[in-house]
Design a protein that fits this description.
The protein is an alpha/beta fold. It has helices spanning 2-19, 24-31, 38-50, 55-71, 77-92, 119-132, 147-160, 173-187, 204-220, 238-250, 269-277, 298-306; strands at residues 107-112, 137-141, 163-166, 191-195, 227-233, 255-259, 281-285, 293-295. The protein binds guanosine-5'-diphosphate.
């Protein structure tokens, strides 16, 4: 049952890749239709690269496939796909997947990222997920500079029938976060999800603001926030990695939410991210509606890329 649920979201991403003819597995299958030769092996590296796997991964995969070919010049495409699959799974390791058990009450989650990446939507999706797990959830609209973000979160909160704490326009986001945590304590909430501002990541004041929100959290509960999730847009490819590095430098990130995987024509960015950052991917966003958030699962992800 759970497996079916996991698969549905991944299937949606796979369908999107199929529609644009960009499913890596299918590209590899058509490249090696006949016998494998040197020229095709050169083109293989390009396919890996085009799938957003990152240059190091593209090189490493190609070199592993080449060695296998040298050992067995009769190697067929299925054997090549099996090698690629094993390598990719090895790169993703066992990391990833979300937090399923809550050790603190309330469990405090800070959601950060550049505007437009899907922060507010992901906050609402996470709230829905925890609520479906039977938890009492409170969201905090701490992006006090964007009235639209606050309104959007309010709409979601109403629709999900969950508590929301918001501040006056342009009020101090750290104060909103603190109010939210106090409200959560008073109302017996299990999870607090704080949606933050996301003006350009290169601007220092944003990072200072996030640090101030974190201080608010620590003042309320010394070991909080329990999770700091960075929302990255999968369609921005390598640029997302730069964003993550910038955020992580100022505010340590405990996990990633990779959104809009349903909208990428490449799909492989999770591998590049995992390799470059080593920060676990916790969830993937696979659409605009509230249920479109899936737990990141390396096996399902690699299977989708290779079109198993
Ligand atoms: P924020 O500025 O980071 O808070 O971003 P929003 O949550 O407002 O999202 C920006 C846009 O991206 C909205 O139109 C969302 O519906 C859309 N969006 C967010 N997540 C996903 C996703 O996983 N898939 C798709 N296709 N769209 C998404």
């Amino acid at each position: 049952m759970v497996l079916d649920f996991i698969k549905a979201g991944y299937q949606r991403v796979k369908n999107a890749l199929l529609k644009t003819g960009s499913l890596l597995g299918n590209k590899i299958r058509s490249l090696f239709q006949g016998k494998v030769d040197d020229e095709q092996l050169e083109r293989l590296e390009k396919l890996f690269y085009e799938s957003d796997l990152g240059i190091e991964t593209a090189r490493q995969l190609t070199s592993t496939v080449k060695s296998a070919y040298l050992q067995n010049p009769n190697i067929d495409v299925n054997a090549i796909l099996a090698i690629v699959k094993a390598e990719l799974l090895g790169m993703l390791g066992t990391s990833g997947g979300p937090t399923d058990t809550l050790e603190s009450k309330p469990h405090i989650i800070l959601v950060v990222g550049v505007n437009g990446n899907g922060k507010t939507t992901s906050t609402a999706k996470l709230a829905n997920k925890w609520q479906n797990d039977g938890k009492k959830v409170l969201v905090a609209a701490a992006d006090t500079f964007r009235a639209a973000a606050v309104e959007q979160l309010e709409l979601w909160a109403k629709q999900l029938d969950i508590d929301i704490v918001k501040g006056a326009p342009n009020s101090d986001p750290a104060a909103v976060a603190f109010d939210a945590m106090q409200a959560a304590k008073a109302r017996g909430s299990d999870v607090v999800i704080i949606d933050t501002a996301g003006r350009l990541h290169t601007k220092q004041p944003l990072m200072q603001e996030l640090e101030k929100i974190k201080r608010s959290c620590r003042k309320f509960m010394p070991d909080s926030p329990h999770e700091t999730l960075l929302v990255l847009d999968a369609t921005t490819g390598q640029n997302g990695i730069e964003q993550a590095l910038a955020f992580n430098q100022y505010t340590p990130i405990s996990g990633l939410i990779l959104t809009k995987l349903d909208g990428t024509a490449k799909g492989g960015v999770a591998i590049a991210i995992q390799r470059k950052l080593g920060i676990p991917i916790k969830y993937i966003g696979v659409g605009e509606s509230i249920e479109d958030l899936e737990k990141f699962d390396p096996e399902s992800y690699v299977s989708l890329l290779l079109g198993d």
